[in-house]
Amino acid sequence: MQSRLYSWISLPLLWGLISLNLLPSGFWRFQGGSAGQQALFGVCLEANLLAGWYELKTNGYVAFGSGVQGGVTEVYALIPIDELRLSLGKRAVYTTPFNRTPWGEEGQWGVYGQYRLGEGMGLEAAYVEGQGYVGGRFGGLEAGTWVSPAGLTPRLGLRGELGELYYQWNTGLWGRLRWPLDGVSGLEGWGWWNPQALGGKLLFGLAYDLEQQVRLGADVSLRPIEAWRVWLEFTVR
User: Transmembrane segments in this chain: where (predicted)?
Assistant: First the structure.
């Protein structure tokens, strides 16, 4: 009851013109496998500052184990202009498995723009860490390409309620699939295959999720090295 009661803290400032919303959570994770055993615990914090039509959002974490880890996965300002939504900062929009961490997907610094054409339809453009992106969305289908001095890097994606599947020329094929078991639990499988990487890249995993607070999973790497691990994670929101 305590975790649900304090999971969302909203502070109105300046008579409602500005509000600060905080979503704190704590986690404990134990994992063991071919690389040994490790226990981690820490805290995460999501904060949204709303000022009229404008929004400032940030996600960060601090974890303690064999050492201290910490980082900000996202921090950006969102500015809506009619049908255009402009974002400035670090966002996890065009992430790949390279950006994945146990506490969320690591964002990339840049300028992001989305122009809404209709329900579930829109055009996109971005400048992210030295390269540009142009593309569009139609329902759950995403298509576009990165543009850089090295040339074009196509990216395709399909996203829905049961998961997502993506392909990017320099990253390979990756995706997630979710199976709801009942109202409070489910299974999630994921995989990543990149035959163009040095030595190849083939990873996959499976996790059981109970009420988004208890997760038990296993990850396996077949290429470029053979490795495995099992993990158990508790989250208090």
Answer: 6-23
